[in-house]
């Protein structure tokens, strides 16, 4: 007797190339692939045990602990009813897209953009249609490209923004974001803004309020608060718009961990201290990277406006695609990079280098890559 086959929409789905390249790296490789902070998470003074005692291992509300939602509402200057807690930002995205995009529907996403967007689309049997970013040094949001994508795809139900951008670190000015929101509202398109890197920007421009029912903002503890393992994210928006996504999310995971939400509450309440620490740690890492580039490459890349990625064009003498190139560097010089092709068709010809790693590892990784990018 043969077993049932996986559903058609799962055919062709593969693990994230970011994970595949990282997990297949030989011993001693320099990890400049994963976008994961390597500095310690600042813990509550009372410790994790106190958080567990404060919240026994119960299910908790589907929308998140009231205390955490209150802290997030204060942080974002919103009403508590505009805040819902999720099991990380990706669960928020998955729940929102399942709530508003049906199988066969399409939604718009940046190209290059976070690979998880495409994976969610495949899982749902939907179509993720890419729109290009601007042709500036950091590939920020292009209002013209987004509006054109909406006009060419009038059936699109949802527009995904990634601000600041993963993988490029580009940011958009507030006028551009509001222009995109106005255009989407006029066309009846829901805007989901993934802004998990926003607190790491020195000039965190963006949607500072919720001016429209057509906007949902998505955040997470994983990057700026250096707490990826807690798996705590959130959705910010009109309660009526969030309600269907809460139902989807509760069906998926019931609720985020109560204990982790207690720790998250402490981190949010101490955001100034925690985020300042993350920015200092990133400054240390950028200093290590820029000094190593000056020494071993003979030039220093421009620092991205936000996040902790370099979006590097492959040198002209490289004669292979970005995936093959990254595999070569991993297996020959022992440096893990992420191919630009993982982020969409417009990412081919680039690689993403994460400088969230420990400073000494960054220095060694840059030294090993000198034969490729060195100009000395």
Account of the 3D structure:
The protein is α/β, with parallel strands linked by helices and 376 residues long. The model has no long low-confidence stretch (mean pLDDT 91). Helix 2 crosses helix 9 and helix 6 (143-152) runs parallel beside helix 7. The longest helix has 26 residues, at 271-296. The chain is 40% helix and 14% strand. It contains 13 helices and 12 strands. The chain has a 7-stranded mixed beta sheet, sandwiched between helices. A 3-stranded antiparallel beta sheet has the order 9-12-11. The termini are far apart. It has helices at residues 17-23, 47-54, 66-76, 89-100, 115-124, 143-152, 174-186, 239-253, 258-269, 271-296, 322-332, 359-368, 370-373, and strands at 30-31, 83-86, 106-111, 127-132, 158-162, 190-194, 215-220, 233-237, 309-313, 335-336, 338-339, 350-354. Strand 3 (106-111), helix 5 and strand 4 (127-132) form a beta-alpha-beta unit.
